[in-house]
Every structure is written in C-alpha cells, then in structure tokens.
Amino acid sequence: MARFSTRSLSSGPAGRGTRVAGKKVLVLILAGGKGERLGVLTQERAKPALTFGGTYRLIDFALSNCMHSGLPDVWVLEEYQLHTLNDHLTNGRPWDLDRTYGGLEVLPPSPDTLTGALEDAGNADALHANRHLIRSYAPDVVVVLSADHVYTLDYAEVIRHHLKVGAAVTMVTTDLPGGEDASRFGNVQVTKGGRVKRFAYKPDEPLGGPITTEVFVYDAPALLRTLDDLRATTPAGQGLGDFGHALIPSFVKAKSAHAYALDGYWLDVGLPGAYFRAHQDLLAGRSVRLDTPEWPVLSSSIPRMPARVAQGARVEDSLVSYGCHVQGRVIRSVLSPGVTVEAGAVVEDAVILRDATIRAGAHVRRAIVDEEAVIAARVDGGPDGLAVIGARAHIAAPVKGDTQVEPGRRWRKGSRERTADE
Prior knowledge:
Elements: E1 19-20, E2 23-31, E3 51-52, E4 56-57, H1 59-68, E5 74-78, H2 82-89, E6 104-107, H3 123-129, H4 131-137, E7 141-146, E8 149-151, H5 155-165, E9 169-174, E10 186-190, E11 196-201, E12 211-219, H6 220-233, H7 243-253, E13 257-261, E14 266-268, H8 272-284, E15 308-309, E16 314-316, E17 319-320, E18 325-326, E19 329-331, E20 334-335, E21 340-341, E22 346-352, E23 357-358, E24 363-369, E25 374-375, E26 379-380, E27 387-389, E28 394-395, E29 399-400, E30 404-405, E31 410-411
C-alpha cells in the first residue's frame, strides 16, 4: 500500500529533494473530489480510479507525467472513496515512486481539512489544509495537478519557463477542445509576453481565449502567503472554494500570473459524454499515444491471461484488453480486462469496464457499462444520447437514451432510472 501520512513530511537527510534548475520541487495531485458529474460511474469509486483505455486509470496520466518529468516527490491528497484509489496506487512502484526518501506519499483527510466540512469548500481549501506540511517540506516550487485529465506533458519544461519569467503562478493552458463548453473551465486572455491579463472561472459568457488545464506551477512562498491572506479575509464559516474563485484571481490582479501553452491533446473527462468522447478519440488516433517508448503511460494492474477471440467473432476498430473473451461482434469499442461478449451479442460504439458480461442476443450501443454488470437486453443511448450502466447492474429489459442505471440495480420491464438531466 502507499504510505499514509499526517506527519510533517520531509525529503530525507539534510532536506534533500527533487530539484529543477536548482529549485526544490514538490508535486501535489488533488484526488479528493467526488466526481458527482460522472453520475453512477463515481458513485462507488474515486474519480481518479476510473478505468480509461481498458487497462489504465485516470490518475495514471498525472503520475506517469511526474515520473517522466523527473519529479519523484509526489503527494496525493485524498478524501472520497479512499480504498478504491489506494488499491491502485500500491506503493508507487509502477511509476518508480517507491523511494526511501520522498517518493509517493498519500495524504488522507485530516481533522483540519476544510474540504467536505463546508458547502463551498474546494481545492483551494485542500491546499490551505495542508499548508503546514508544505511549509515543513520547504519547497521553492509547488506543482498542483488534477487527476482526471487525459494528456501528456513535461512538467519540468513548465517549471523552467515559470522560473524564467519570474511568475508567482504559471497556469498551463490549451485551446478549447472540439465539442466542449468553455463555461466548464477557467478562461484566460494573455498578453503578447505571456502574462495572464484576464481570467474568468466557468463564466456564463466565455472570454473566447484559451482555457486552463488545471496544471499550476506556483512559487511556494507566494502560494502559502496568498492562502493565508485569503483565509484571513474570508468570513467565518465560508471556504476558499476552488482555484478559480479567489486564489488564481489574486495572482492575476497582482499581474504575477503567466500562461504556458500545452502543445498536444488534452481532455477533461469529468462528464460521461466527455469520458465517452475521450475513448472515441483514442480509437480514432486523435488522443495521446498510451505506449509511446519515450513517454509511456504507466499503470498498476493484476496480470491476466491474453484476450481470446473465438472462431466466428468479429472485432473492428476496437481495443480489447487482456482477459477478455469475445465470441460476438465488437465495433468501435473499448473492452477493459475480463470482459465477456457472448456469441450473438453486439457491442458497438461503447466503453465496457472490467469483468462486465454481454449476454447472447444483447446489443450495446452508445453506452458506458461499468464493472461486473451483466447485459442481457438491448442498451442503446440513441443517435445523440449516452446510456450509463452502473457496476454490478443486471439489465434484463431494454435501456434507451440518456439513462443512468444505479450500481447493483436489476433492470426489468417497467424499470425507470434517472436520466442524465435528473
């Protein structure tokens, strides 16, 4: 298991720690959110532990980027459904983060953590709640990451840029991905020199420029000082909210915020539609390459037998993970480990998670099927919709359109579950 700690963390003898351009660097991965917008997919798991691309988890992108960037001192801040993420993190070994000094540290909620105690608490509160640990580590630079985005990035390059321009915070930005709504993100406008001159957090009227990717590089003293100042001026009983509410605007107002443009694929998969679209991009070759020799995405997984494709099966434009048994048809879909598609079953434009079973005669189309679900009827999100089936659900009657079936539910004729808008 990964190490749990609420102590004063250090980087080893004499304060030794990771350095980039002579500066001591600490990485914080925020992995505590409930991910409520993903509906039934995160009802029983932490969002960063959600499977992606068959054999990976969402947090693997941030952890792999840290390893390849040469940043081994990584703290994962947790809160919701801790066990589902800790089972995957093990001791950090898949990402070469199992170190005698430093390495991967898992920080569970502490009595001082504001997140969850206040209705408006958010990721800025998570940083404030761990400020004493950050001060004890005494970094020069703090890199703060989210754990639910699909991308690859050399954080060391961002740090070097951050130090070169002398910013208090550098936010990694990207052009708005196709099909996405700018009002879901932080919007920025940047000067020719790269300074952020205007910032709007999830605005009703988008600014029309790039958006933030929730990759932030902070000058550590400036971050801690600003968190303390915000806490001192925030009314009792209120939280600091998310980065975009007060923390980032403080730096923008002080003209000390800069942008670093990400050159490559990036997608926030915090909605079922975005999660589904990310898999479509993966199948179409528009996403990041997961196994590039220079920068592979690394993961922790239980070994299984190779996939078996039986005589008479048909697989087209799909990813089939180890441990799968395919006898039916699979078209433009992603099958996670252990999935069974029986003879006479059809899986089309779908994402099927671990150990789910598609029975003979069932047809799954435009759907996400969670772990250990059994599908024995037609599941069809429709031409523009998306059906989402919770873990261990048993589908014995048709499911149509934007419908979410709760985990463990037995779906029979006459059953009704909430739609995506409910």
